[in-house]
């Protein structure tokens, strides 16, 4: 702001940035603080629909107009001035050629040369500053749109948010926002283009008169045909974006459930699904690109055809073609020919505008009445409906006062979680009313599905609040985590992976969700959705007594649980809400009968459990060399572009020189026509070859990227944020599909144009080469100086961009936790900080580009002036052909924008090549699972016998052993239960058995075969698992039951559902073809576990593993599952991990794990008869 006028005009104020960049001293602090209007805090995108329901007619376009219209529209004055000065060139050129043809005074030539200098100089400044200001507005729009999409996603009602998949919302923020921003430079072309066409026609009329009509008719026909092509492109683009949303949505679900995918060996199956959607996307992309190639061909050839037709008719009618007329017409043709490169397809950008417009319906007011009370009013839960669940009717007239503990129990799918969703305003209320006296202070909620951020344990707990050491330690002890922290490499400063995948289920439930709700919130109301399901009986009792019924005493707590014992032995008898059929009742006696039937012993808390910890795998980045090996057509396109450019140069030569006496004008027009036809053929080949090469490159990149990700080990997904991987498959892939080929095509065309211009200018005026040499040296050093800075800025921009997408995807996954905690504002503020950090890099990149652009423009001005002065000098000292002067000047006038265009297109191409670089890194550097392709020819396994021989497992070199010398044998068909305290290594056994993690030592033998000698596909395909965290894909119930399509008969599917007690639920949902919602959210957590059991029933395998398969189900459903296992897996080897001792009492043997060791193994009855056994102690707790 303090820079002087000269410094602002020529961007001299950016010199310190360029110096630091050249010395490779740039960092994020060195970047310019973006214009205050660029920061999200100050340029908050004003969606009136978010605040006032009265403005429902407001759209994204109207909001853009209201916020940025005045500044953006006024920039049209710069555009208008630049365009008008651009037409001064042909007029002055006409006069200068006439000067060379006649004997006008020398002073006239100086006037014309001075006019060319002033018009090109002022026009260059106006053009540069127009681009700079438009891009500044684009940055403001991008900042506001990203902020608005994030804010709406955080504040939107869950029912409204459920209408969009995670992939769709990610596309809103990435691809669609970028396309709207790309539309900003195109808008001014809409009004500028007609004005330029009209002025061009007027100037042409002055040169050739009414003979212009034939060319005008041809131009109108081409415009109508172009309109048809643009319409078809819009249709193809809309279809392509629809398929892209489906692909990103499925890819997001795959990454979220990657453990389930690996366990079931579904990599190839889901890759085929992704590739199937990608094939449809590529089909639309082919149509789009080939129609776009047709547009490029017409834009490039139409001006040549119009010129040929105009010259022919002008000569046939008896008029004499002069050098001045020909040069003026040629300059106008070159000017019009550049429109095709500066005018990207607006239909695609407008489609992005309509895509983001669809998210306007996200936000709704919270449908809850806030009252300032000390407790609950008499509450009436009216008829409710959540889009992701079945319709639920709830009614109650019970009065709950502050400080009560309310227990909620019931069967699977009874509506326990829906009750908490209704209180926390996460469901759509259709009738009745909800009154909550402490909703304005936020609600502490512990969700059934744990959600963690990719940060340290302490950061997840504090969530940015002040650290209170004494209270923090108290909470840690109450949640039985002191010993867990002690064994972690960095204690509570240990970083957890994406969504806490590096922690065990019990650690995840305690480490962050429960602790943060206790430490951070200190609220009046706590909604606890079965937080004890993922921990063993000992830890569950400790947490209940010390935390829920102890530290939280005096607050109102609503606890949904299947652990009924704690409710009966609480410090005071809690109210019990029991769900039966469609009514909610306060029913203590029924609960007591339920507990009595189960004969569960009392819970005593004596010791805090400790466990091993799994840390994420470290990703070491290396320097990447990127080449266009995926596009074999690139070299061909370069050759064709060069040939095409020199044909263009040749086509001007015959009519630019004085015609020999032996030939008439028609002969030269015939030659011109032949060369024009050659130009048309080369252009056609170039356009469609480039389109073909781009599509082929995009196809191969996606295939390789998908194969690399699907074969990556679990450790890679533990350490890599989900948003970063999704970004490779969304915005990066879209860049390779669309933007990169487009910009690369422009770059190659621009550079050949500049080379051709220089050659023709030197041919027409040889003395110009004297001026060219110092200009070339200056050009080299300026672009070299710029590229060093540009490379550093691109690196900083890339580094600052990934955290935005990672934070966005992470926040979307946890929005159901963030909103009830009343923490949306902190996440919104953090997003603003990330966006501002990235925009500082983008703004500095823009300034560096314009620093270069204005200097290149000035070099072009020097070239134009030099050509004009050279022509005047040569005209005075010796004879010079007017045709040669016109030839040189006509091309020199285009070099002003050409030099800037080369470096701009090169910069954009280099920026888009970052997407190729990032994908190439994932293709070449992501570690792969062991690639054993050996498949046993004979049926295997036959019996299902399993043997662990001194198995050791260490997740990372600096971590303790998760399994330490584990050895045991399991006979074929044996039913074995695996128990132990949380973090004891139980789930690690399954990871080793399925080959998901490499062992440090020892071996695993199945039916006499070492699993290391078998391909992972066969190993995992011959076993079934019901995971601790059930995961379903969006789609039909049939597709989730039978993903491979191996079971054709509906009777088998209904049998599996009925065996698991889900037939009634399936019929109520609409049958086998009913939609499950994203990640199966129409079912409760317990129902999803039962559906996973039904899926296992349909598989004909010899080994079945259950990892806490009954954690989220009630006691009655647990009994049903045990009966189903005994009946239908009678001949199978069954391994069951369970915290409920009753779940393993019917097992043939029990393995007791603790701290990675097998401490006991034997029959349950024998171990129970030994009072000092660890198993007996677990059973008595």
From TrEMBL:
One of the record's GO cellular component terms: membrane
TM helices/strands, residue ranges: 72-91, 111-132, 212-229, 296-316, 623-647, 667-695, 739-761, 767-786, 852-873, 879-903
Substrates-to-products reaction catalysed: ATP + H2O + xenobioticSide 1 = ADP + phosphate + xenobioticSide 2
Membrane topology: Multi-pass membrane protein
Keywords: ATP-binding, Glycoprotein, Membrane, Nucleotide-binding, Repeat, Translocase, Transmembrane, Transmembrane helix, Transport
Presence of keyword Repeat: yes
EC number: 7.6.2.2
Domain ABC transmembrane type-1: 74-326, 667-911
An annotated Gene Ontology molecular function: ABC-type xenobiotic transporter activity
Compartmental location: Membrane
Top-rank taxon, per record: Eukaryota
Domain ABC transporter intervals: 363-607, 946-1180
Xref: InterPro entries: AAA+_ATPase (IPR003593), ABC1_TM_dom (IPR011527), ABC1_TM_sf (IPR036640), ABC_transporter-like_ATP-bd (IPR003439), ABC_transporter-like_CS (IPR017871), ABC_transporter_C-like (IPR050173), P-loop_NTPase (IPR027417)
Protein family according to the UniProt entry: Belongs to the ABC transporter superfamily. ABCC family. Conjugate transporter (TC 3.A.1.208) subfamily.
Protein name: ABC-type xenobiotic transporter
Taxon lineage: Eukaryota, Metazoa, Chordata, Tunicata, Ascidiacea
């Amino acid at each position: 702001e303090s820079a002087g006028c000269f410094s602002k005009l020529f961007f001299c104020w950016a010199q310190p940035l360029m110096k630091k960049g050249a010395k490779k001293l740039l960092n994020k602090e060195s970047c310019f603080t973006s214009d205050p209007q660029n920061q999200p805090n100050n340029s908050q995108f004003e969606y009136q629909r978010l605040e006032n329901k009265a403005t429902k007619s407001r759209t994204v376009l109207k909001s853009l107009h209201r916020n940025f219209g005045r500044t953006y529209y006024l920039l049209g004055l710069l555009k208008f001035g630049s365009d008008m000065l651009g037409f001064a060139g042909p007029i002055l050129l006409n006069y200068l050629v006439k000067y060379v043809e006649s004997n006008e005074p020398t002073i006239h030539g100086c006037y014309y040369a001075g006019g060319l200098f002033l018009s090109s100089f002022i026009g260059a400044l106006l053009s540069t500053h127009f681009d700079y200001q438009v891009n500044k507005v684009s940055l403001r729009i991008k900042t506001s749109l990203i902020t608005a999409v994030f804010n709406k996603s955080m504040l939107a009602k869950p029912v409204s948010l459920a209408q969009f998949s995670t992939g769709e919302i990610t596309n809103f923020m990435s691809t669609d926002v970028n396309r709207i921003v790309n539309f900003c430079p195109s808008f001014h072309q809409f009004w500028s283009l007609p004005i330029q066409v009209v002025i061009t026609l007027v100037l042409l009329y002055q040169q050739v008169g009414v003979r212009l009509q034939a060319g005008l008719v041809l131009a109108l026909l081409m415009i109508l045909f172009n309109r048809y092509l643009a319409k078809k492109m819009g249709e193809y683009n809309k279809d392509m974006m629809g398929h892209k949303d489906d692909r990103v949505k499925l890819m997001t679900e795959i990454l979220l459930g990657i453990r389930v995918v690996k366990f079931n060996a579904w990599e190839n199956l889901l890759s085929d699904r992704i590739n199937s959607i990608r094939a449809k996307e590529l089909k639309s992309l082919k149509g789009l690109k080939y129609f776009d190639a047709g547009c490029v061909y017409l834009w490039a050839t139409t001006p040549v055809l119009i010129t040929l037709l105009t010259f022919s008719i002008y000569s046939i009618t008896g008029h004499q073609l002069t050098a001045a007329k020909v040069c003026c017409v040629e300059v106008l043709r070159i000017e019009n020919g550049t429109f095709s490169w500066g005018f990207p397809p607006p239909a695609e950008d407008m489609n992005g505008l309509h895509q983001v417009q669809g998210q306007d319906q996200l936000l709704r007011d919270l449908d809850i009445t806030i009252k300032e009370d000390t407790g609950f009013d008499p509450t009436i839960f009216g008829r409710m409906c959540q889009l992701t669940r079945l319709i639920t009717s709830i009614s109650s007239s019970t009065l709950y006062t502050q400080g009560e503990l309310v227990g909620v129990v019931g069967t699977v799918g009874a509506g326990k979680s829906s009750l908490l969703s209704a209180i926390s305003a996460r469901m759509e209320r259709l009738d009745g009313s909800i009154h909550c006296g402490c909703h304005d202070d936020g609600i502490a909620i512990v969700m059934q599905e744990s959600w963690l951020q990719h940060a340290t344990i302490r950061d997840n707990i504090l969530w940015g609040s002040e650290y209170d050491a004494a209270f923090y330690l108290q909470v840690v002890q109450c949640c039985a985590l002191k010993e867990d922290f002690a064994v972690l490499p960095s204690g509570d400063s240990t970083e957890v992976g994406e969504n806490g995948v590096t922690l065990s289920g019990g650690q995840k439930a305690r480490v962050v969700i429960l602790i943060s709700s206790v430490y951070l919130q200190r609220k009046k109301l706590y909604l606890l959705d079965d937080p004890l399901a993922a921990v063993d009986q000992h830890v569950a009792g400790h947490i209940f007594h010390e935390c829920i019924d102890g530290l939280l005493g005096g607050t109102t707590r609503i606890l949904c649980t299947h652990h009924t014992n704690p409710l009966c032995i609480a410090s005071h008898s809690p109210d019990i809400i029991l769900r039966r059929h469609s009514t909610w009742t306060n029913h203590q006696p029924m609960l007591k009968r339920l507990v009595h039937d189960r004969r569960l012993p009392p819970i005593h808390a004596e010791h805090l459990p400790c466990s091993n910890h799994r840390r994420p795998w470290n990703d070491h980045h290396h320097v990447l060399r990127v080449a266009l090996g995926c596009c074999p057509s690139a070299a061909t396109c370069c050759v064709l572009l060069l040939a095409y450019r020199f044909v263009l140069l040749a086509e001007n030569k015959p009519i630019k020189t004085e015609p020999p006496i032996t030939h008439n004008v028609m002969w030269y027009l015939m030659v011109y026509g032949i060369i024009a036809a050659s130009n048309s053929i080369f252009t056609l080949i170039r356009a469609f070859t480039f389109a073909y090469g781009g599509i082929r490159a995009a196809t191969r990149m996606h295939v390789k990227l998908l194969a690399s990700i699907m074969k990556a080990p679990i450790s890679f997904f533990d350490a890599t944020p989900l948003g970063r991987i999704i970004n490779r498959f969304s915005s990066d892939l879209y860049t390779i599909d669309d933007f990169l080929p487009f910009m690369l095509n422009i770059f190659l065309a621009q550079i050949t144009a500049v080379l051709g211009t220089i050659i023709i200018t030197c041919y027409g005026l040889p003395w110009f080469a004297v001026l060219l040499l110092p200009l070339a040296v200056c050009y080299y050093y300026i672009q070299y100086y710029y590229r060093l800075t540009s490379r550093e800025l691109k690196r900083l921009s890339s580094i600052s961009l990934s955290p935005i997408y990672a934070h966005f995807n992470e926040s979307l996954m946890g929005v159901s936790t963030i909103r009830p905690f009343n923490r949306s504002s902190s996440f919104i503020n953090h997003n603003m900080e990330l966006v501002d950090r990235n925009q500082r890099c983008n703004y500095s990149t823009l300034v560096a580009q314009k620093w270069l652009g204005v200097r290149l423009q000035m070099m072009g001005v020097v070239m134009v002036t030099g050509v004009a002065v050279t022509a005047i000098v040569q005209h005075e000292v010796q004879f010079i052909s007017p045709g040669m002067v016109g030839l040189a000047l006509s091309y020199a006038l285009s070099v002003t924008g050409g030099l800037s265009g080369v470096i701009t297109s090169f910069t954009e191409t280099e920026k888009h090549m970052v997407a190729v670089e990032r994908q190439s890194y994932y293709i070449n550097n992501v570690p792969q699972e062991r690639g054993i392709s050996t498949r046993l020819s004979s049926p295997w396994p036959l019996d299902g016998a399993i043997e662990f021989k001194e198995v050791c497992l260490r997740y990372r070199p600096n971590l303790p052993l998760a399994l330490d010398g584990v050895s045991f044998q399991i006979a074929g068909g044996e039913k074995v239960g695996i128990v132990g305290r949380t973090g004891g290594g139980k789930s690690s056994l399954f990871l080793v058995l399925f080959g998901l993690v490499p062992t440090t030592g020892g071996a695993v033998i199945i039916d006499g075969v070492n699993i290391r000698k078998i391909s992972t596909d066969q190993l995992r395909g011959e076993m079934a698992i019901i995971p601790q965290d059930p995961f379903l894909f969006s789609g039909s119930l049939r597709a989730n039951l039978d993903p491979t399509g191996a079971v054709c008969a509906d009777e088998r599917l209904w049998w599996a559902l009925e065996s698991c007690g889900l037939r009634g639920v399936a019929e109520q949902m609409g049958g086998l073809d009913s939609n499950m919602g994203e990640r199966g959210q129409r079912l409760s957590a317990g129902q999803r576990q039962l559906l996973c059991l039904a899926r296992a029933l349909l598989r004909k395998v010899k080994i079945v593993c259950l990892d806490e398969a009954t954690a989220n189900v009630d006691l009655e459903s647990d009994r049903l599952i045990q009966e189903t296992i005994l009946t239908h897996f009678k001949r199978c080897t069954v391994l069951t991990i369970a915290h409920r001792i009753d779940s393993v009492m019917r097992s043939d043997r029990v393995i007791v794990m603790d701290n990675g060791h097998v401490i006991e193994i034997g029959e349950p009855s024998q171990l129970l008869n030994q009072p000092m056994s660890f198993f007996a102690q677990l059973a008595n707790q």
